[in-house]
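G., the chain you wanted modeled:
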Amino acid sequence: MMKHIKLWAGILGLVIGAYIMLVSCYETAWNLLTTSGHFNGIAGIVIAVLLLAGSLVRIGMRSSSDDSGSIISLVLFAIAAAIAFAISPIYHYMKGWAIVCLVMGILSVLMIMWKNSRQEG
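Predicted structure as tokens:
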């Protein structure tokens, strides 16, 4: 059951990360062409790469015997959420991306707790 949850959460993270990457690449190109001086595209690319990396780790290590995959993905999602929350006062739409990263991180914590409770009992 836990492997399936990790797989589907990882796939969902990949889809959302790909969407964020697409939007951020568009924003970066627009900012460069208009010389607006905004940095939301670059920040979005960093957030998308962290989200994609965390999701790939979650999928790749879903059947490992230890919690290393969940811990690595938790760290990547936490960094992405921190960056997005730090930038959200300037670019308000990044608050939604930060919440997505935060939910993915919370899901990693729940997977760690669930695995530890199953090993104890």
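The mean pLDDT is 90.

Shout if anything looks off.
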